[in-house]
Structures are given as C-alpha cells and as structure tokens.
Design a protein that fits this description.
The complex is a heterodimer of chains A (268) and B (435).
Chain A lengths: L5 H26 L3 H6 L8 H11 L2 H32 L3 H12 L5 H15 L5 H5 L6 H11 L4 H9 L4 H12 L1 H17 L2 H6 L8 H8 L7 H31 L4
Helix pairs in contact in A: 1-14, 3-14, 4-8, 4-11, 8-11, 9-10, 11-14, 13-14
Chain B lengths: L1 H37 L3 E7 L5 H15 L3 E7 L2 H14 L8 E5 L3 H7 L18 H7 E2 L2 E2 L2 E13 H6 L12 H15 L4 E3 L5 H9 L17 H16 L2 E3 L3 H9 L5 E5 L3 H5 L8 E4 L14 E9 L6 H10 L5 H11 L26 H9 L11 H16 L4 H16 L1
Parallel strand pairs in B: 1-2, 1-3, 7-8
Antiparallel strand pairs in B: 3-11, 4-5, 6-9, 6-10, 6-11
Helix pairs in contact in B: 2-13, 7-9, 8-9, 15-16
Classes of the chains: A mainly alpha (268), B alpha/beta (435).
Chain lengths: 268, 435
Amino acid sequence: MKKITPIMVHTFLILASIISLFPFLWMLMGMTNTSSDILKGKFGFGSMLMDNIHKLQGMTHLGAAFYNSTIIAVVGTIITLFLSSMAGYGFEIYHSKAKSRLFGLLMLSMMMPFAAVMIPLFRMFSNMGLLNTPTAVVLPSITTAFMIFFFLQNTKSFPRELLQAGRVDGLNEWRLFTLIYVPTMKPTYAAAAIITFMNYWNSFLWPLIALQTQDKKTLPLVVSSLASSYNPDYGIIMVAIVVTTLPSVVIFFLLQKQFVQGMLGSVK
Amino acid sequence: MKKFLSVLLLVTLTASMLAACGSSNSDSKTADSTDQGGASKKKVIAWAWDPSFNGAALKIAKELYQKEHPDFDLEVVDMAKADLEQKLNTNLAAGVKEGLPDIILVNDPNIQKYVASYPNTFADFTDKVDFTKFSPYKVDALRVDNKIYGVPFDIGVTGMFYRSDYLEQAGYSAKDLENITWDQYIAIGKKVKEKTGKYMATINPNDEALTSILLQSAGSWYITPENKGNFVNNPAMTETLRVYKAIADSGIAKPVTGWSEFVGSFNAGDVATVVSGVWQVSSIMDAKDQSGKWKVAPIPKLNVQGGVNASNEGGSSWFVLNNSANKDTAIDFLAKTIGGSSEFYERFLKENGGVGSYIPAFSSAAYSEKPEFFGGQAIYRDFTDWSKKVPGISLGMYTQEAKDALKNELPNILQGADLTQSLTNIQSLFEQQVK
C-alpha cells in the first residue's frame, strides 16, 4: 500500500461530496413535500412544490426582501472592497513602523464581539436618524479588520517593480493604485467579493436590530420569521431557504476560478 | 497631497451616496406618518410571533373592535419569538423609543423579568380588565407587586394525548388512563412497548418541557417567588427528577434531539402518548391519516402533596408599552376584545385552535365541539375543565437560568448520580449564575 490509487482518491472524494451535498439535496426535496412529510423524514421528491411556493407568496413579501438584501449586499460589497483594498494597499506599500503599530491595533478590533458594541451602536444610529435604512446595515461593516488584513497579506506578494515602472512612466500614486494594482489583483478582489457578499447577504443580528418595518426586511429575517411559529410549515421554509441560498451559490460559481486563485495568492 | 485629496474626494462621494440613500428613506417614512395623521386613523402596531396563531388572534380582535370603532386600525408585525425578544431588549436597554410597537406579545416566563428590568415601561392593566373572569393561575403569572401588567392570552393547559388504537391493543381503555400517577404511566408504557412495539413517549435530555410540566402539576417551580433556587429540600423537585429518570431508565421513551424530531415521531406514529400543552392539537392534527385514533386524558400526577392531574406548558400575554403614542387606544382595544369578549375566544378557537383562559367563553358552543379527529371527544371542554385545576405559581425572574442549571446536571442524573448531591450542585450553579 505505498501508492494511493486514483480509485481510492475518487471514492473518498465521492463520499465527501455526498456528505456535503446531502443538506442541499434535503433542502430541494423538502421544497416539494408537505411539512408533516418532512417531519416524518420522507426521503424523496413530492408534488407540493407549486403549493408551497404559492403559500409562501401569500405569507411574505419575498420580492421586497430579495430587493433589500440585494441592495445591501451589492452596495456594501463594492464599498467594502474599495475601502479595504485601499487600506490594505496603504499599510503594505507605504510601510512605516507607526503604521504597523496602528495595524496591530486594528487587528485587536477583530477580537471584539459584535454583541458588545451593539447597544451603543444602536443608540448612535438612532441619534443619527439612520435606523430602518439600508445605510444603517451597511455602514458599520464597510471596513472590516479581516478584509484589510486579507488585502494586506495579498499585497505582500505584489511585485513592487510594477509600481516603480509605473512611477518612471509618470503615473501618480492614485493611478498606480487604480491602473496597476487593481487589475493585477483581480483574483484577490474576486475572493474578497465572495466573502464580503456572503457576509452581507447572511448577516442577521444587526439587520434584525436596525431594520424596523416589514418593507425593509432582508431575506434572512424573513426566513427566521417563518420558522418561528408554534407549528412551522417546513415545506414553505425550505422554499424560502432555497431562494435565500441561490444568489450566494450563483456568485460562488461565477467567481469560483478567481476565488481559488485569490486564496492561493494573486501573483505567482 | 494629491493622493490625500483624491481619497478625501472619494470619501465625500461615498458619504454623500450613503446619505442620499438614507435621506430618501427617511423622507418616505415621514410621508407615511403624515398620511396616517391626515386620514385620522389611529394605527396601532403590534408585535407577535406566529402569524397563524397569535398574529391571527389579533386580526380577529381587530375585526371585532372595528365594529364599534370604525376609525381603528391595527398592523401586526410577525417575527420570530427570539428575534422579537432580541429587538425589544436592545431597544429598551438602549433607551430608544423609535421602532417600538404599541402592543407586544410576552412569553409568560419573561413577564417578571421585563417588568422588573424595565420599570415604568409597561402599562398597568389592574383596573382595565375584570381579571376574575380569567383562570387564576394565568392572572398570577401577570401579577408583579400587586399590579397586573397585561391581558392574559393563550394558555398551555396540558393533557396526555394518546393513540387509542395502540392502548387498546395493549389492553387499556380510556378509563384506565384517567387520573393515574406517573408510576402507573410507566407500567402502562412497558405493557404498550411489549404488546405493540411502540414507544410510550419521547424524551429529550436537552429540553426541560417535561420537568416544567411535572413541577407545576405539584404547584412547584424551579425558583421560589423570592427568586431563589428551589432545588434543595423540595419534595416536588426530587419526585420530578425521580420520575424523569424512571421514564428514561424504563426504556419506554424514544430519545429525540429536537422539536422537529419530537413532532415527527408522533406524526409518524412511533409513540403512543404525547404529554403536552393544548396548542399541540394542531401539530397532532397535521397527520391526517391518524384521524379518529387520538384521544386526550388528563396528565398523570406526581405522588406528592398537592400533586394534581393538571399542569401548564407555555402561554403568553399581551403588554402595552407606556411610551407608545397610542397607549390609551391600545389598552382599550385589548381590554374590550382579548380581555373581555367571549366572541373573540369562540372565534379564536374555531379559526385557529387557540385556547384562552377567559372563563365565560368555556360554556360556549365552540368549546363543546367534538372533533372527528379525536374520536368525537369534546377535547376543548375537557382542557378547559383541567385548566381550572392548574396550580398557580410565580414564574419569577430567573426561570431560564434555573432551567439551564438543571439541564447542565441532567445527564449526570440520568447516569445514576446521587440525586441529593446533584440537586445541591444545581442549586449552587444557579446561585453563581444569578448572583
């Protein structure tokens, strides 16, 4: 048994993918069954799909929630990527001792649990009159220590010769960033985009607190309210979960190649 | 310098973009509120957590109230119970009024905690509703320092739902299940297991529903009315845990890990009995193929002084916030419907299967209905009869903490640790937590 044969590798991978895909399959099957079939543990597709979709439409404004989630996630991701990449670039390229101390301090903020700052944050947004707006959801996380760290780490492998060549050609610092750094780091941006998008899309606690009226709610909040009843209808919940999961899946598959590259480092 | 300028420019740009986004929203909000003012409709906002149960109840109440107050309007906001509690706590802790509703649904074990933690936040209902018309144990839960802080809503009077077909097969008739003790229950369970191969019940070591039912049936609770731990030297507690362990040891209970597995096991016909609150009726009736096979008996009782064959699981009440702009309208609305209308309770039962604690409604036609599903038994009349026997207890402020302390020790108890020692451990753990 010196060699691991391709058959063994494949068997292992197939098993692993069955295990990780099972929840998805269960979710898709659940969409087509009645609640009590799901609870009984029925494994197989049923014929209730249209019925469940229909009932869900009657219960919630899924369209509005989808729109709210999309606005928050897309606008939030663009701003976060822009600000965090500039910060990461700045910390690494214009390096100095004082800046690395500042960066250390920034890293400490990652250790702060959100629940600890939630109540002051809520008061602050209330005083600013921003509660119940998408801005309130986006603003607290437009720069995160993790994203800055992520860009900084990736910038370490960025060849500075490119910047020097650019300077020789007469580019100013701003154009060095936009014309040379940004295009070179595309895979890093893709990876960061997926992570950030998922964070906004799935964020729950803060939107729950900050958004107050039904028409402003995001998808996770709607799913949570469906699951709350004493006797929840799991078929309907499964439909809502599929709707909620789909965009993340689509974005991941679109950016998959870049994501893997980005995780390995942009510049080889 | 140029770099600095461009960054500054971008920051301003982003900020203005966000601000634009924000202000357009707040514009529309102010427009909304002027609309409401202009139409002179008093719109009351309420938070509830189950659109097909308590949310639906409010809608019935709204229809009834609108008959006499045509300018009244109500918006029900549905959200998950945990979400509702999180939002309420954040708002109250931050001292922010914005976004709070006028009416809020409160789970009974939270009542004392809310009233004590946020004084002067909830409206006093003491003279607004005739509380003598409600089951006393339900009113006891709402009483803090001799004031009553809300309108009693649904109750969770418990019953023992059972599959009459399984029990018949094991040789038991309805009569054999009336007014039994838990030891008799276990004996019946063993027989059922032997004859039908079905489990008698489910057991979930991470859930304290059963222990709560047992304790209240003997008029006891996890904590004393003075909010001290009630684990040591409490015969009801000792007996509760003895019974709990006996059920687990006897092998008549199917282990389950969560709510959906619990519901799934009786929907699939795996268990012969379900000891639960009256609201479980709707989950049981979900399994349409089992129609006619279910019946309900009073729950077994604990063999201690004061033990009765009735208890309660869950239940909630409506509160009005003192700071709300529509406080008086909200109080009047609740007092005239949920707090004093038999018609409301009849419709709530017929349309949503909800049982309240309003005694005048118990003699109505709706409550003597005999559903086919339960073999023609007048289950609601039975449940309301039992509800009058439920011992009143004070739920205190730290019910959740006490339950958590118990849950922590429960595995040891089930493994056969010395009960007295375990109870001392629970008591000290609880006291550490609430100190």
